[in-house]
TrEMBL record:
This is Thiamin pyrophosphokinase thiamin-binding domain-containing protein. The keyword ATP-binding applies. Pfam families: TPK_B1_binding, TPK_catalytic. One of its GO terms (molecular function) is thiamine binding. It comes from Polypedilum vanderplanki.
């Protein structure tokens, strides 16, 4: 049984108290998550990576919040560097730069590959990726594809990857049984299951609209804009292929 506790990622108090081993990645999208949570996630991660234009986004975030001299520099800057400004590289001059020039993969996919040697070295539990779901549908689909490709890696180098925006958290549930803990204040919000690996047989508990051995597929059934049953603390999902879980998060968290 795979168990997931999103509050351990999106709650400042729990991030501080649990002292988990995780990596933090900044992609090239506006940073709209609350400053306090971003600071906490950044300061408590074991390795911080800004990906190409995400380096500019991070520098802008620091300047806009007067944090240039208060937070540690990124551990690594990765990507093909076609959108990373010279000013950003100059500011983070002490940060190691790993240029990944392969144009057949996204910078996000290549970043996770760069991260692989650190997974066992740092005993990483998971990776948190800061990325708003806005503006570019092609980028969103590419990011989901990266999550799926990461899921296909061996267990030695594959760890859960959580995509965090200001309004949601999304991650892949592997084949088999999973439980997701639902924070109290999120129980009135939306959730979704999407079959990104092809036709997938799914059973659920804890949702308003549960499924029992339903086949989910594009061109058929997908479970967007679902809700919780309002009673259960956990949603249980059983699937025969990896499936994307996404859920709304609330300000109280």
């Amino acid at each position: 049984m795979n168990k997931y506790f999103p509050s351990k990622i999106i709650t400042k108090k729990e991030v501080l108290e649990l002292n988990l081993n995780y990596a933090l990645i900044i992609l090239n999208r506006p940073i709209q998550i609350k400053r306090e949570l971003i600071e906490t996630l950044w300061n408590n991660s074991l390795i911080n990576i800004t990906v190409d234009g995400g380096t500019n986004r991070w520098l802008n975030f620091l300047k806009n919040n007067n944090l240039e001299n208060k937070l540690k520099h990124p551990t690594l800057i990765t990507g093909d560097l076609d959108s990373c400004h010279a000013e950003s590289l100059k500011f983070f001059t002490q940060t190691k730069v790993i240029q990944t020039v392969d144009q057949d993969e996204t910078d996000f996919t290549k970043c996770l590959r760069v991260l692989e040697p650190f997974i066992n070295e740092l005993k990483l539990d998971h990776t948190v990726v800061i990325c708003e779901n806005s503006g570019r549908l092609d980028h969103i689909i590419a990011n989901i594809n990266t999550l799926y490709k990461n899921q296909l890696k061996s267990n030695e180098i594959s760890r859960p990857v959580f995509m965090l925006s200001s309004t949601s958290i999304s991650f892949l549930l592997p084949e088999g049984k999973s439980e997701i803990h639902i924070p109290e204040c999120a129980k009135k919000l939306w959730c979704a299951l999407m079959p990104i690996a092809g036709p997938t047989t799914v059973s659920t508990e804890g949702l308003k609209w549960n499924m029992k051995n339903f086949e989910m597929k594009f061109g058929g059934l997908v479970s967007t804009s679902n809700k919780y049953d309002g009673i259960s603390d956990f949603v249980k999902v059983e699937c025969n292929l990896p499936i994307l879980w996404s859920m709304g998060i609330c300000d109280e968290i």
